[in-house]
Design a protein that fits this description.
The structure is a homodimer. By secondary structure, chain A is an alpha/beta fold. Chain A is 37% helix and 14% strand. Chain A has two domains: 1-71 and 108-247 and 329-346, TIM Barrel (Alpha-Beta Barrel), CATH 3.20.20; 74-107 and 257-326, no CATH class. The longest helix of chain A has 17 residues, at 78-94. Chain A is globular and about 60 Å long. Chains A and B meet through α8, α9 and β10 of A and α8, α9 and β10 of B.
């Protein structure tokens, strides 16, 4: 059985779950188009997740991929917070904000028993994870309703670990990919590998199917990934300008501008490295900073800056997530994009 | 006319010029196998280059690619040298060497009028450059004997610059590639892009043919690059263990070990970022260090450490250049490797 058959989809194309820039609408459109639509849940409460899944179920009978982060929530560290606030203080002053009233807030919720309780009643066909896998107990519960489990690997070692620990297929996340790196066995960014180099090495190291992600933005990219031995591809960035995405106008404009040619991995927005278009914040503090609190605690103090700047039409403090190939970003319906992506599959 | 036809080769496969690990033997084998063999000249005197080209001409009538660096030699900076020597002093002490007797030496010679004088009499069919292009006067002399001129681009901007300034085809050097980054319009490593993402963007931005380099190590990689729109591919790392290469035993063993899974960009060995297997020196000083003198001046003080350690069987201080995909490194004749690489070209 091919991976697409196992996933119950017509096209070997997965839409990458992208928390903060899409919800049920994009997932429904992709599912109806024959790909695997995804609902990112890292920034949703269990209630909001349940509502979004109800919306999806009302609109499509196709399988769906529900995505979670599975990090360990860190201890808050007041000395670290103080250094972070000090680094951001000039920006707070510039925008007339009070650095002493930064709201608390975790920013992203990991997959846990409470979420699993809700999910169990909804039984999504595919459950995918970023940053490894949840505890064996939780993973067993997910598998018990028959879900296919996916997770991202950024190195050969991570792919082998995921296979050994129960992933049914591995998403091979090349360095080109936008958003958060799925890395979980290392924090060393020099270990991160381009898609063209990583995919064949993972393919040789594991027996589960492999899904290529990172840098794929058009039909030729899809054909190239399949030629390389991928069982399917995952595309994120190219969907960001579809009308079904909730990407902000500011983010959409950036994606379709020259600025999108220069992305970098940054930990400033969340505490973990993620790829986005280079912003003023990244230029001035350096994209990777030891000052940023642990994931996802860095997010809280960025929020007010982002909101205030965006209200002035500026993306100086916004996480403008994007991969290294934004050439596929156009304002076309997701189904049309999906058809284009699939047009050179033989 | 296809690029392969213009270059006069049967297969759309270029052997990457790799200074220090290969000479005429590999170039001859690749040329006779139907690919484009290359002679790297950055570390050769004009006399040695002339001898090597004579050897090539005696063995094959196929076209050959002669490769040069075209950096501006930097001013030596004694304060910088002193800091660099201080950083290396503990290693000199450990190996019983005298840090005050570091030999002078530029390490790499850029393409210049004297080299061009010699080359003009030998009229190689293809001349390729790294770090941009030589002066318009020198470039005109090269073109006057009918040579096809290639150069490497690591960004869309560099590809456009190369086309505008006379390159006949552009080598698209993805982040996965081993050895020196060809970057010349920027020193910002965050601008460097994976092959799968960079190739289609360069292809859309220039009209000259594009050659994919970085991460290609087997027939599927070649097929993928061609599916992506490349007119040809350039393969380096996979040739390093061929008997025709001059790669040291130590380097060969590293390439075929688990250590090869972790490469990084480092400026410690030459002053410019280049990709190699992570060594003790890279781990202890950090792979990118502000202490390293400008290219190619960092090389001089590394030389004695490298020689002394290699005599003890250690690669702690050796530049073990390698790309991010060493899975193609096997001890097979270059012609056999070439046949394999070409086996999925339709």
């Amino acid at each position: 059985m091919s991976l697409a058959q196992r996933l119950g989809i017509d096209l070997p194309i997965l839409q990458a779950p992208m928390a903060g820039v899409q919800g049920s609408s994009l997932a429904i459109a992709v599912a109806e188009g024959g790909g695997l639509g995804a609902l990112p849940c890292a920034m949703l409460s269990p209630e909001a997740m349940s509502d979004e899944l109800d919306r999806i179920r009302a609109k499509t009978t196709r399988p769906i991929n529900v995505n979670f982060f599975c990090h360990l929530p860190p201890e808050s560290d007041s000395a670290c917070d103080a250094r972070w606030h000090q680094a951001l203080a000039p920006y707070y002053a510039e925008l007339g904000l009070d650095i002493d009233s930064v709201p608390a807030g975790l920013g992203r919720r990991p997959f846990d028993a409470e979420v699993c309780d809700v999910l169990e009643t909804l039984r999504p066909e595919v459950v995918s994870f970023h940053f490894g896998l949840p505890s064996p107990t939780l993973l067993e519960r997910v598998k018990a309703w028959g879900a296919t489990v996916l997770s991202s690997a950024t190195t050969v070692e991570e792919a082998m670990w995921l296979e050994a620990n129960g992933a049914d297929a591995v998403i091979v996340q090349g360095l080109e990919a936008g958003g958060h790196r799925g890395m979980f066995l290392t924090e060393d960014l020099t270990t991160q590998v381009g898609t063209l180099a990583l995919l064949p090495q993972v393919r040789a190291a594991v027996t589960v199917p492999v899904i290529a992600a990172g840098g794929i933005a058009d039909a030729r990219g899809v054909a190239a990934a399949l030629a390389l031995g991928a069982d399917a591809v995952q595309v994120g960035t190219a969907f960001l300008c579809c009308p079904e995405a909730t990407t902000s106008m500011l983010h959409r404009r950036a994606l379709q501008s020259e600025a999108a040619r220069h992305t970098a991995l940054t930990n400033l927005y969340s505490g973990r490295p993620a790829r986005g278009i280079v912003t003023r914040l990244m230029r001035e503090l350096g994209p990777i900073s030891a000052l940023a609190p642990a994931f996802p605690l860095a997010t809280a103090a960025i929020g007010p800056l982002r909101s205030a700047a965006e209200a002035l039409g500026s993306g100086d403090f916004s996480p403008l997530w994007a991969g290294q190939n934004t050439s596929g970003c156009r304002e076309v319906p997701a189904t049309a994009l999906l058809r284009e992506l699939a047009s050179e599959i033989s």
